[in-house]
What we know:
Layout: H1 6-32, H2 34-40, H3 50-73, H4 79-101, H5 107-127
Helix pairs in contact: 1-3, 1-5, 4-5
Amino acid sequence: MPSQNPIRLRMLRVLLAADAAVLVAFGGLFMAVPGKVTLAFGFTDLPQAVGYMIGLWGCALISLGIGYAFAIADPLRNVTWIQIGIIRGAIECAFGFAVVSQHLVTWHQAGFGTIVAGAIAAGYLLLYPREAA
């Protein structure tokens, strides 16, 4: 089993906690007020039924957030959640750049999320538990 520098482990727990909190908060907002969420991200004139898809997205975000919250107690034993965080952040970041480059959304709409997702993936990569030397 990998061992970890106590400071890195503490930083990993903080990253897991921050990621979990943001995911649960956004997930709750996506479920509770999907129309306001679309407006906050600069999307107007969307059909009301889009709120259903945004609400489902919120369910997925809350689920991920709960998983990360459980991993905080023992990140070394729950390293799969760290791997999921890396994969999730990388995919979100790549997708953000892809949709902006295809002019499906503007950088104003997708930039913040794209940068944050990349930073989350990078943070998990930097703090990933490694074998002791």
